[in-house]
Specification:
With 341 residues, this protein is of the alpha/beta class. The chain folds into two domains: 197 residues, D-Maltodextrin-Binding Protein, domain 2 (3-Layer(aba) Sandwich); 95 residues, D-Maltodextrin-Binding Protein, domain 2, CATH 3.40.190. The protein is 43% helix and 16% strand. Strands 2-1-3-10-4 form a five-stranded mixed beta sheet, sandwiched between helices. Strand 6, helix 6 and strand 7 form a beta-alpha-beta unit.
């Protein structure tokens, strides 16, 4: 009996030990299994604006909210709108004016956070040139891309500046090559998104911007969007994502956080061989576009019906939206946090 009792106790002890190991292992595997995969498509190759998403990723805020977020570079807002609208990604990053045009053409998409409510598009000109206003582009060579987000608004932009496209030589160059062409002095000006590109060319061809907003064109720039189906089926995932992004932009505005955010970009995209100073300058140049008078005091990502009303009118005037379009159909503030606490 003593021998049987001894072996029985040894068996029980072994079983208890095995069960303890199983119990210890379960939380880790269960936590991994519970992470919801979320695919994000960026607007373009990584630049300063993307410090927000990589900072949130490295802080673990997506995982803390139960998300396994994968981030893929894009090839332009138009392409991102197309592939996200087709259901190939959960979330897209794009100029929201392009997103609105996509929705107007039938794509079931809507903005879930707008981080640049005022347009950052415009014309870059050398600082040592005699080009001070749009009228000064008369007789000049101007590089642009016909497929860019800026192209549909050029006639209104020029009209508001008292000039027409016939008074200049517009040179259509692919979006991937137009910056290098400008730096190589193949033209007198470059139509582009100003903050990031102004920083990129500053060493080789110091430039300044003449902005859309200077001539009354108020259209939304960078933000995040999703399909109506994703909004319906994954509201909690979108809420976690937008809250993390809003908090990230709030934190990295401070000088003691920005270098950490830039390091996070470089860590996640080492193959792109960034200069930390250039990325930092790009990010800092974007912040003036990340609020409007109508979003003052609101968390980053919150969108204004008043801003969208102006944007819709601008896009209608440019022939990019039909007359049935209404401001509120293009965005929702459902997922934007009320505070950062």
């Amino acid at each position: 009996m003593l021998i049987k009792g001894f072996y029985r106790s040894r068996l029980l002890a072994g079983l208890v030990g095995f069960l303890a190991l199983v119990v210890l292992a379960v939380p880790v595997s269960a936590q991994a299994a519970q992470l919801q995969p979320i695919k994000v498509r960026l607007s373009f190759l990584t630049y300063g604006f993307h410090a927000g998403i990589f900072y949130a990723l490295e802080k673990g805020w997506f995982k803390d909210g139960g998300l396994d977020v994968s981030i893929e570079d894009g090839t332009g807002s138009t392409n991102t709108v197309s592939v996200v609208g087709a259901g190939n990604y959960d979330i897209g990053e794009a100029a929201l004016s392009v997103m609105a045009q996509g929705r107007n053409k039938g794509l079931p998409i809507k903005a879930i956070a707008g981080f640049e409510p005022t347009s950052d598009a415009g014309v870059l000109v050398p600082v040592d040139s005699n080009i001070k206003t749009l009228k000064d582009l008369a007789g000049k060579k101007v590089i642009y891309s016909a497929s860019s987000l800026e192209a549909p608004f050029l006639d209104i932009f020029f009209h508001n500046g008292g000039i027409t496209r016939d008074q200049m030589e517009l040179i259509n160059i692919d979006g991937m090559a137009k910056v290098s062409a400008y730096v190589a002095n193949r033209a007198d000006a470059l139509i582009t998104v100003v903050p990031a590109i102004q920083v990129a060319v500053q060493k080789d061809r110091p430039s300044r911007g003449i902005l859309f907003g200077d001539y009354g064109l108020i259209i939304p720039s960078m933000g995040y969007f999703a399909t109506e189906q994703t909004i319906k089926e994954k509201p909690q995932a979108l809420r976690v994502f937008v809250a993390a992004m809003s908090r990230a932009f709030h934190e990295i505005k401070d000088e003691d956080k920005i270098d950490e955010a830039i390091a996070d970009v470089i860590k996640n995209r080492p193959q792109q061989k960034f200069g930390a100073d250039s990325l930092k300058a790009q990010l800092q140049a974007i912040y003036p576009f990340m609020a409007s008078p109508n979003t003052a005091g609101k968390p980053y990502g919150w969108e204004s019906s008043k801003d969208w009303a102006v944007a819709v009118k601008t896009m209608r005037d440019a022939g990019q939206l039909d007359n049935k379009a209404t401001p509120d159909e293009f965005f929702t503030n459902e997922f934007v946090p009320t505070s950062y606490k």
